[in-house]
Structures are given as structure tokens and as C-alpha cells.
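so the lab meeting is tmrw and i was supposed to have these ready like two days ago... anyway. pasting both below. for each one the top line is the aa sequence and the line under it is the C-alpha cells. i havent really looked at them closely yet so no promises
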Amino acid sequence: MNEPLVTVIITTYKRPDKIERAIDSVINQTYPNIELIVVDDNIKDTQERKETEKIVERYSNIRYIKNEKNLGGALSRNVGIKEANGEFISFLDDDDKYKPTKIEEEYKCYLEHKDEKCRTYLLVVCVV
């Protein structure tokens, strides 16, 4: 069975010292089919933008989007959603991390409850 694509969107602002941990926690997921999008909300030409760019450039499997101006967390997530290709979307803050089985466990939970008449609440919340 082919697992559907899950897009993980990490928004970042003024925390280049935290972003690598967040990215690594997504890359190290046990779920096999993940698209990772990092939306950089730092202002152009700031030290935070430069440091974040250097960190993200080390990874070949990340879609990196730089906001032209600071939009805030909610609008930056919307930027990521517009670029997402996944059937499911999951959000991660730049100063947090996922446990290695997070997405796999949530997808299994979704499969177990998807036919229920009530809406199942999962952290993978968006079915696109």
C-alpha cells in the first residue's frame, strides 16, 4: 500500500538556533512519504535570515520559501499550505520537534477512524 503524501510545514522567525532540530525531527520520521516545507518569516537581509538560509541549504529535500516581508505565523502557514502537495498537512513550530513515530501514528489513527460519522481530531488536521 502506498502511503499518501504528508506535507509538514515549519514556519520560522528569529530562531535559527532551533530550526535544525525541528527539520531533523521531520526528516527522521518513520512515516515514509513526507514533503517538508520551511517558510522563513524573517525579514530580508537580517542576520536571522542569513543564518536560517545557511542551515536550510544543508538539506537537499526541503522546499524553502522566503517571505518578502514578515507576515506572522498564521499567514506564513497559509503560504506553506498554498505550496503543499500533500493529501495531509501537519504544522511544526521552529522551536519544537516531533517524536520519530508521530506522523506514522497519526496516519494509523486516521485509518482506524476515517469512516466514523464524527470528525476525528488529529494533529495532522488538514485533509486537502
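ok protien two:
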Amino acid sequence: MGFLDNGLGELNYRPSREGGFTMIELIIVIVLMSIISLAGVEIISFTVQAYEKMSGRQTLGHSARVATDRISRELRSALPNSARVSGSCLEYIPINAAGSYIDLPVEVSAVTFQAIPFNAGQESSSGRVAVYPVGTSVYNLGSNTLSGSATLTGPDVNNEIQVTMSASHRFPNHSPTSRFFLVGDPVSFCLDGENLFRYENYGFSTPQPGVGSLPGSLPERALLAQNLSFSVTPFAVIAQSLQRNAIVAMDLIFTEDGETVRIAHEVQLRNVQ
């Protein structure tokens, strides 16, 4: 506080502000700072939650893309008419090599036949020979649509290869395009609970095998994706028509922590025989 001379010999009292803030001002400041702090915490919390949800959606989307891309890539090398669906399982027969045959044992049995390969470097391939596969007979080894195990020799000076089968074989029909395929054993993709598995090395079966009759451990069973919800029809095969090839339709639903990603994808299958 201080005193001032008013010119009349009297001293007037003037309160001083040098003592600091009043209690009311401090309370107001504290209340305002608390409000600002609480608002900042809420904003940070919402930002973190939004980031976590976005990361979860990205993880689910990545898992979905990896699974569908893997299945799509494999199906593009599927033997014509070999894709089939039973329950939550999709099965197909993979092509290891292909070519055009020059002669084929149809009228009489033989162990070898001559052919021209589609691509160089296929002479190291092995498998079973398939010619003009029609319907599900390709899974019936007694139908003669598939031969026993076979190997290819390297091309000669005329770029011809020889296909040698393990036993004498006679195919039921010629191919309209003189085409043959060298195929491996069937492969299955099955949705089992929340997991999508890939199965191999289990052999041929005329009735399509389900999860219960497929291998139950590595390396024949490999985990492809997790956190799936069971769709009514995870896989479906749409038969070919005069306008288009056969199609495998996938309907896969991925769910985790309340986030859901649904993938509806179609893959066109090879139809040239």
C-alpha cells in the first residue's frame, strides 16, 4: 500500500496491487486449467482409440487380402472342372505342367506318348496326366481320366517331349484341343471355426473330404488366416456357360475387437481343354 500528498498537506491512502492475485482469481484460473486439461485428455483418448480402431481395420484388411490373394493365385492354375465345394471346404487339383500331345493312347494302352510343352523348363515336373477332365470323374482314379504317376523328358531337336507313365494307360477320350495336363495331388481350403486352413498331400477321394477327414497337423495342414466368422457359403462354384468360364466365389468375414471386414471375391477358372 502507499500514501499520496494531495497538495493540501493531507495524505491520501491508495491500495497497492503488488501483493498478487486474489483468492477468487486463483480459483477461477484453477477451474479453467482443469477444464482445459480434461478436454485435452479426452481429445488424446479419442485420438488413440481412433488410431487403434484404424490399425485393427488395417490388420483385418491385410489378413483378408493375403488369404484371398493366396487362394486366387492357386485357383488360376487349377485343372478345369476340378474345383468343387462341400460345406466349408473348397478343393481343386493343381496343374504342374501342360502341353499339346502329338499322339495319345486312347484306342490302345501305352506307357508313353509324344507332346509339345507350353513352357520351357517343364521337364523337371512330375505328377499324373489328365486329358479332357469332365465333371467330378477327375477325382475317381478308376475312371482313367487320370493316369498313374508320370514324368517328362527334356525336349529334343524338334522341341518334342516324351511323357512316360508308371504303368500302361488308356485315356477315355481325346481332348478337342489336343491338350494334356500334368497335375499334382488335390489341395483344399477349409474354414474350421475361426481359422482358415490349407490342406495338401492327402490323396484323391471321389467324395469330397471334409475337415474331419483331412490332415490335422503340419506340414499337411497350414494356417492361412484367423479371426473369421462362419459365412453361410464361404465358397461356391458357379458352373461355366457359353458366355464365361467357371467361377469360384468367396464370401469371407473377418472379425476382431468389434471390427468386421467382409470380402466378396470371384475367381475365373481355366476352361480350355
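from a quick look at the 2nd one: DSSP finds one helix and 17 strands in the chain. Residues 61 and 266 are 17 Å apart (CA to CA). will dig more after coffe
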